[in-house]
Design a protein that fits this description.
The chain is an alpha/beta fold. Helix content is 42%, strand content 12%. The chain is built from 13 helices and ten strands. The strands form two sheets. Strands 1, 2, 3, 4, 5, 6, 7 and 8 form an eight-stranded mixed sheet that branches. The protein has a two-stranded antiparallel sheet with strand order 9-10. The radius of gyration is 33 Å and the shape is globular.
Amino acid sequence: MARKSVTPTHKSINLALQGGGAHGAFAWGVLDRLLEDGRLSFEGISGTSAGSMNAVVLVHGLIIGGREGARAALAKFWRAISDAGQRYSLVRAMPWDRLKGDHWNNDNSLSFQAFKAMMNAFSPAQLNPTNFNPLRDILVEQVDFAQINTHQAHKLFLSATNVQTGNVRVFQNHEISADVVMASACLPFLYRAVEIGGHTYWDGGYMGNPALFPLFYCTDARDVLIVHINPIRRAGTPTTPHEIEDRVNEISFNSALIKELRAVAFVQKLIGDGWLKDEYRDQLKYVLIHSLRADDALSDLSAASKLYTDWSFLETLRDRGRDAATVWLDRHFNDVGVRQTVDLHAQFLDSGSEMRPFTPAKAAKLPKPRKPLKPLVPQMPLVIKGKALPKPSAKPTIRKRTATKAVKAGKSSS
């Protein structure tokens, strides 16, 4: 009698947390639901911008209080973000804006338009000469970075963009500080570049949102769950200035991730189709990609709402994240460790000729080489300074006597 396969009740995965300002509260909801469910543990966590903040608060909470400690730490952090926003944010809903149901989409509000005008006219150094940043103060107060530096059970990888080289810089546990998190979340039109070790950094989303490659090289878990914040696909074509700006923002902050997913698909093909020699197969990991997309959950939100930190809005995002995680667990928990739940080819590669199978053309038969042609002989005599020279023969010869005279002349002159 055949035995029924038993699905393990606990599995280990890697997390990849995107950034997206206040929309990071969506990822908070996802994490809260995964922690509540309890069947998944996290080996590696890669984060960028708001994803980096969620990552360090998550690990800090796990260190001090396990799963429930992590849930409490995330809730406390996002509540502090909302409180700070009410005190310091320049982008907030006016009383008449709140009459709308979606007052967080305040692209046309006076506060947001005034904020954009200031950002276009002044640099962060001019607007904020003391470099005051309440987000940093919240991190310093709530996260024990000294414990994270020596913690090994959960591997952190936080991405920032090197301003000078344009390359992504990935910081690991022993390097992580409040400044590293702020570098990962440093939008250049809002904050000054953050200097670390003689280099300056901007938001990691420009080069890795988030970076996936550390999860391939530095962890044992094969499964990677990407928690998206920026919708990848949207129906229709944007026409208004705000819609165009929002869509450009989404495309820009997804581009680095999509390129990495294309690379993953290529490596999977190398392994799956047997293109590698046996001695090299064990040197590559067949990664299983899972994706918790925000295309539907956050499609009704504009880029302006990423700056909106009203507590009711953050709670709405959290609840959407919890709902999305519940659906994902119901559909795909059994797939973890077994199969990939994202069709990378259909999602990210079905764009043109690269999807057509390569079939080398048959080598054409080349004609037999012809005999070398004789050099052409000019038919007209050459004329130099009015004197005609004889036609050169096909095989020019040197008169021996002339050469001998030249030699003798050389000897006599010496």
